[in-house]
Each structure stands twice: as C-alpha cells, then as structure tokens.
Amino acid sequence: MNTLHQQVGKKRRKLKKRYFLLLIFLLVLSGTVLFVGTSYSFREVPSTPDQPVTKPAPTETPPSTDQPEPITPPEESSPEPEIFPTIESDETETPTEEETEISSEGPTETPAEENTEPPVEEEKPEKVVYLTFDDGPSKWTEQFLDVLAAHDAKATFFMQGSNLKKEHLQESVKRATQEGHYIGGHSMTHNYQALYTNQQFVPEMIETLDLIHKITGTTPSLVRPPYGSAPGLNGGQIRKQLADAHIKIWDWTIDSHDWELPGNPSQIVQNIKRDTTSDKEIVLMHEKSQTLEALPEVLNFFKDQGYVFGVYNDASHFVMNFQNDAAL
Ligand SMILES: [Zn+2]
User: Fold this and answer.
1) Which residues surround ligand 1, an ion (CB under 5 A)?
2) d(CA 192, ligand 1 centre) in Å
3) 7 has a pLDDT exceeding 90
4) I need a surface site. Which of 85, 158, 281, 316 has the fewest CB within 10 A?
5) Quick one: which of 151, 145, 153 has its CA closest to 175?
6) Of 75-89, 108-122, 189-203, 285-299, the least confident
7) 286 is catalytic
8) Cβ–Cβ < 8 Å for 175, 142
9) Where on the phi/psi map is residue 263: left (φ > 0), alpha (ψ -120 to 50), or beta?
10) Is 172 within 8 Å of 141 (Cβ atoms)?
11) Cα–Cα distance between 44 and 83 in angstroms, integer?
12) 62-93: per-residue pLDDT in tens?
C-alpha cells in the first residue's frame, strides 16, 4: 500500500515538475517573442511602441501563452503600411534630394521617379518669340494661318479697322481667333496726322477694338501704334487717355523691314536672324506676300534656336513700348 502510494505520489510530483517546467518554458518563449516583437517596433516607429509593450504583458495570460503570441506580431506589423504612406507624402513635397535614401525601401520608388522628371523640364529657361503681323486682315490672311498651323505656331495680329470692315475678310478673322491667335487693334485709318497730330489715337483704337469684338466675340485690350509709339506718343496726353481707357500698347524688339522688301524674302529672314539677341523677342511683320514667302524659314529659324511661339494674352501683359511707359 505504502509503496503504491509512494509510487503514485512520485508520479504526481514528476508530472507537476514537468508541468512546471513546461510553464516556465512557455513563459520564457513568450518573453522572447515579445522582446523581439517590441524591439522591431522600436526601430520602425518611435511613436507607437507604447501599445505593444504594455498590452501583452505576461501577467495577463500566462496559461494561454501559445495562442495570443502569434496574434500580437501581426498587430505590430500592421502599423508598417500606415507609416510608409506618411513618409511618402513628406517626400512628394520635397522630391529632389531624398530620392536615393527612399529608393531602398521599395514602395516609394515609382512616385519619386515621377516627381523628379517634371521639375527638370520646368527648370529649362524658356525662350519666347512673339510673331506679330500688322495691317490685316488681307487677302493673305488665310495663307498666313495655313503656314502657322502647319508649324503649330501661334501669332498676334494687329488689324486695321478699314480692313476689318470688309465682310469677305471677316471669316479669316474669326478663323484666326478659333485657331488660338490674338487679334489686337491697329487703328481705323492708319493715318499719322489723324492719329497723332489730331490726337484721334484713342477714339480710333476704341472703335477698332469694338469692331474686333463684334466679329470674333473677344474683348482685346492691346493695340499696336501705327509707325510705333515713338515719336507719335512722345507727348503724355494720349498715353494718359490710353491708361484711362485700359488700353495697352506693344511696339517690337525686332523690325523685319518686310514691308520695304517686296520680292526679297531672304533679306527679311536675314534681318530677323541678325537682330535676334534676347530670350524674349517681339517681331514686327506685315501681311505682305514677301513675308508669307519668308515665314516658313522664319518659323524654322526660331524653332531651331529653341524658341517657343508665344501669343499675346491680356491676363499676362508685359510692358514693351518705346516710351518705357509702365502704365501701357
Ligand atoms: Zn501698320
């Protein structure tokens, strides 16, 4: 009996020992799993380790250690995807320098590449040439528009009231507007005496701009003074009237002298090439047949020189007049 009791007692003690050792083993195991888990989370997220450290403390659930431990790591790994997006969003704001550091992480590669490309294009200094054609509309207007369209170039036309009144030319004026060109005013009479000596400049320009509005529906505010603003506008009176009427004027930076070169388009091209010196040029030309002949070479020249063909825009006016009048 005694021996039996003793044997049973030994077995029970052995079993208790085994259970005790198993418990300790499981506790140690859970402890290491927790430690490894928290140390990872410390590396990645300085802000969130509070939760993993306090939550799965061994005091709460020692018997059921096996199951909760595998569950907790996914909880710790889940913040990772939340963290990376915040880093990404920071980088989209300042894309240039940090690119190499982030690329090792993987998920940020594609946005970083996309962000770096556009700024390079924007950094390029833009050379702009504004081609301007005076005295139209004319029988040549359609062909000017054809050549410009073939070269995907926009231009600024300064049209004269006496020509705008010709109904058979008005379709060309509409077409020019529809194809993205700007139509500005160039007076009704083009007469020096009337415009400057008799000071009809502003009334004539208002009438011309109204005519353009009736034909095209646009509301232009830019005019080109016939013969240029000097000497015609040397006195301040007309310029004050222009400012009061919110009318702007544009002269030019390059005079092609095309009007006095009939039959000599190559000289027109040479004149333009010779005087092209700046990143922003305004070229004075007219609706003449020799100008039409020279136009493809003029367009190719500016393209080869890296110029963009600008078209005047009332919203982004810049001052370009021989009077250096900042109000115009
Ligand atoms: Zn003119």
Assistant:
1) 134-135, 226
2) 10
3) no
4) 316
5) 145
6) 75-89
7) yes
8) yes
9) left
10) yes
11) 9
12) 333 333 333 333 333 333 333 333 333 333 33
pTM above 0.70, yes or no: no
DSSP characters for 184-210?
A: EE--SS--HIIIIIS--HHHHHHHHHH
CA dihedral sign of residues 209, 213, 216, 221: positive
**Whether residue 134 lies in the annotated active site:** yes
- Give residue-wise pLDDT tens across range 283-299: 999 999 999 999 999 99
Take residue 8 and report the two structure tokens written for it. 């049973």
CA-closest candidate to residue 52, choices 33, 34, 31: 34
305 C-alpha to center of ligand 1: Å?
A: 28
Distance 263 CA to ligand 1 centre (A): 19
**H or E stretch including 255?**
strand 254-255
Q: Is residue 225 within 8 Å of 251, Cβ to Cβ? A: yes
**Residue found by looking up tokens 């004539």 in the block:** 204
Would you say 224 and 250 are in contact if contact means Cβ atoms under 8 Å apart? yes
**Distance (Å) from CA 227 to ligand 1 centroid:** 6
Reduced to 3 states, what is the DSSP secondary structure of residue 152? coil
Q: What is the largest CA-CA distance in the chain?
A: 144
